[in-house]
Amino acid sequence: MLNEFKYLYETHLHTSESSACGHDTAEDMVKACKEYGYTGIFVTDHAWGGNTAVDRSLPWREWVRLFALGYEHAREIGDKIGLDVWFGYESGYNGTEFLIYGITPEWMADHSELHDAPISEQIKIIHSGGGIVVQAHPYREEDYIPQIRVFPEYSDAIEGINATHTSPISKAHKSDVWNEQAIKLAQDNNKPITAGSDIHSTTLFGGGIMTKRKLNGPKDYIDLIMGDEMYLITDGVIVLDRYGNQIQGV
């Protein structure tokens, strides 16, 4: 069965250009992902409500322009070496974080209302631009997260596998139960389950989504997650189907 799922996508990746916690540049991240065997990646740097590397006091359009540099540098290198690179971002609300897919920096620049939108309004705004909202690592416990808050009612999907939690080579945010809790949250609320590595350096964990067909862009990814087509999720070691059922180790 696994041989049918030839395409691997990293859905949660940070660059040093745009995330203050990023250790490596977009160029180095893209080259590492290509060498590892990824077909494509989403660059999901931390936005204004999280650990952004961009001055929050800048005017909105200037902030977006600088924020998008990590993605733009990554896409430029990806185009040269044959790795698909797509835009996303990780929004933050007092430690609670969401992954946003399906919008563009240009659309983002035209929607300054994103900056102050409460969680309950975020999904409406993102949907208006054709995107989706995925709650990231909902049960992670760290000093920067004041309390665990889950919002399945305001999320299109749940990041059930965050490879940083379980990868044997991860050195941060380790737990054997956080992913299990996130998968159960998705199952209990009939939400799609996603997976990503949450990588901040070129030490890759191998997490993400595995597909039978090559995706042509963010819309294909959204259709895959929100539709009925089978895909696999992995932390680089364990592989599960889209419903959270384990298939086998790799």
Account of the protein in words:
The chain contains eight helices and eleven strands. A hairpin with a 4-residue loop joins β10 and β11 (246-249). The protein starts with 6 loop residues before the first strand and ends with a strand. 28% of the residues lie in helices and 22% in strands. It has 250 residues and is of the alpha/beta class. The longest helix has 13 residues, at 69-81. The mean pLDDT is 96. It is globular and about 50 Å long. α1 (26-36) packs across α3. An eleven-stranded mixed β-sheet has the order 7-6-5-4-3-2-1-8-9-10-11. It has one domain: TIM Barrel (Alpha-Beta Barrel), CATH 3.20.20.140.
- Looking at the overall shape, the CATH architecture is Alpha-Beta Barrel
The H-level CATH homologous superfamily, spelled out, is Metal-dependent hydrolases
Which structural class is indicated by helix and strand composition? alpha/beta
Can you list the strand order of the major beta sheet? 7-6-5-4-3-2-1-8-9-10-11
Query: In angstroms, what is the radius of gyration?
Result: 16 Å
Q: What is the CATH T-level topology?
A: TIM Barrel
Order of helices and strands: EHEHHEEHHEEHHEEHEEE
Number of folding domains?
Answer: 1
Mean pLDDT across all residues, rounded? Answer: 96
Shape: globular
